[in-house]
Amino acid sequence: MRPGSGGSGHPGIQGRPGHPGPPENSADPSSDVLGQAAEAFGLLASPVRLHMVWALAQGESDVTGLAERVGGALPAVSQHLTKLKLAGLVRSRREGRRQVYYVDDPDIVTVVRLMVGQLTERAEQAGAPVRRHRAAGA
Question: What are the tens digits of pLDDT across the range 82-94?
Answer without folding.
Answer: 999 998 999 999 9
